[in-house]
Amino acid sequence: MKVLIVGARHPWRMERAIQRALDRAGHSTVLFDDRRSARWVGRRLTQLRIRRLARRFAPDFVFLSKCLRLDLETVEEVIRGRPNAMWYHDPQWHADQALPEIAHITAVGRMAETFFVTGFVREWQNLGLPAAFLPAAGAREIAPGRPEPAAATTVAFIGAGYDPTRADFLRALGRAVPTRVYGPGWEPWRTELAWSGGPVEGPAFATACASAEYSLGILPARAAGATTYASDRMWMVMLAGGLYLGPDAPGIRELLRDGEHCFWYRDLADCIQRIRALEGQPDLRARVRRQGEAFVREHHTYDARVPFLLARREWQNPLD
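^ that's the sequence the OP posted. Answer follows.
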């Protein structure tokens, strides 16, 4: 099958990982980075470039990401008469239709045959989108890293500093247990956090996970009410050999089992209590870390998602 992918070409972004997974499955792929094209040649020429590419490549299937630099008329022409699907990884923004970027994503999602999201399915369906649940995933190429003594810590958090509630959580946690923070956007709290500055990707990401006893997940404030929603960071951490400690939510335990694949916490106090309770159980932590990586590697890579994307059918949970 020939598949046209619209999205970022960055090696650790979802679209590039999907392309590698499709290639491994024997499909022929082309990835068109609409944002990069718009930076290089402008928005108007970007419309012409992808229309010409679609005519020449004649894809059997079109995979859409956000398409932020494509006009709606261009998207309609590219997918016309072709099976297609869109996969949106940040579904908690459904209520922010006044934002131009979210309104555009919503409009593209209404055009797609299937609008896959990693949570808040009903909320997107109520906006008239053909939403279906498909959890995020991790790239199969991610491998466990080696601990680095200089980066050793009890807790590591890898993520962007756009949410003050995350900063509040990390500051309080850091007063209780050693906590290191990685990722962009933490400048407002740089004097209050053990921040390593800037993003970590690839081998550096794996090293950060391996050097911490726990790799932490924190839901942003706008994800309040989440059920099965979780960032792709969860899967990436576990593929990198990290022991994931994440926020409990109704439905999240349907994805991973507490004490078998990872550990869940209810709130800040419970997070601290769980860390302290597990302090004297290194064998349990090591076992959960190994089991978590093995389970994610089998069931939660982009390779495992490809059949659901191409068939435009909702995900089937291996734990059911």
